[in-house]
Amino acid sequence: MKVQHGICPIEACRSIRVTGAGIENDCCMTVSLEKKNEAEGIRSIREYFMEIGMQRIGTVDINLETDGDSQKAVKLTQTVVNALYQGAYRFSKTAVRSWEKGAAFARRDRLADFGDLEVWLHADTDVRDALKKAIQFATCTGYARTLGNLPYNLLNIEEMVTYAQSLSETCGIRFHAYREAELKELGCNAILAVNQGSSEQAALVVMEYEPVVGAEKTALVGKGLMFDAGGYHLKSMKDMEGMQYDMCGAANLMEVMEMAATSGMQKNLIGIFPLTANLIGPNAGKMGDIIETLSGKTVEIYNTDAEGRLVLCDSLTMAQKLGAKCVIDLATLTYSCHAALGDLTAGLFCNDDALCHKIEETMAQSGERCWRMPLDDCYRGEVLWSSIADLANYAPGRPGAGPIAAAFLHEFIEEGTQWVHLDVVGPAVQRKPGKYLAKGATGVCMAGLCRFLEQE
Length: 456
Hints:
Helix content is 37%, strand content 23%. It is α/β, with parallel strands linked by helices and 456 residues long. The strands form five sheets. Strands 9, 10, 11, 12, 13, 16, 17, 18 and 20 form a nine-stranded mixed beta sheet that branches. A six-stranded mixed beta sheet has the order 1-8-5-2-3-4. It is globular and about 75 Å long.
């Protein structure tokens, strides 16, 4: 795809005009925004241009009419460009041939195929800087989707560590990967327990971006299960399908870190990514095992397939030890949230009402959907039932698995720390080819969280 600033010089090109009233295609109103609220209007614009992006060929002229409102023009540019790239994205089947170590990063521009659509975009104010930034963000979203789409034999723990290191070196981000010996010394036994069945070493990747020395830090914690077979509570064939996507939280937030660094965002960020594989083997964790987490709290492993909350609990503690006062985690965690909210909406848990409102607002402004879920004390009892440990990682036979998982994680949030937990099993993956997106990883919550971080 080629997106450039200016008016298309080809007379026969498709002409699209975006105004406050709606979208006109060759002088015919195709999308009316008059009876829609702001969030619905943004989603309508986004879906319209995602559908155009899906075509991947041709020439389009896009005119943004905002009555000279530069802020509105910038936001529209971001929405339109991101939507075009989202719709156009395809995973390149040919780019995986003759795979070698480091290929996930070295080939990422070949792996993310955006087609041959040519777009000319202009507005009644200067949007050239916004256009450049929007293309940059859309490309990073494509990289994240590619990471999610790569299978475990091509993108395992080692390859993901290499990707994170290459990204950090390219963007000037401080990088460290804690491996088995360091994780044992630190006491990250929950991360290690999940990875016991794997032949690879677990990793806890820490990436630090600090443009404002001494200012407060926000941590981005992304679940990085490179493959989840369920451990000894082995998944069925149906449930194991697509388990390479269980690292989309890490992929998406890693690329948010890249976007922050390349755009010069003035926000101190710590990216924390636990990378493991939940497999079976002679040393794999067993039902009933007790582990001592980095926080010092002990956990009884009742269900080896409730592993996401284990890698996250050590990571949340690490984020706070590194000085983060606001922690945002993104995880494909529970099918309960998927069942409750469907394929398009993220489950949002938060311990601070004002922060929650900001997240809801920026997600809506980005055309993404989330819905606040309960974090009430009544769910806490469901993780405190163990007679041999402080906590249990599962509540057998109990409904409300999404809030119960969030209640477990909440036990690792210290007093005074703001915390957001986004459960994205549903919207992280497009499970079949759709009208707006190709099958595969979606880059969920990247747009909303980037907007939130920019506004903070």
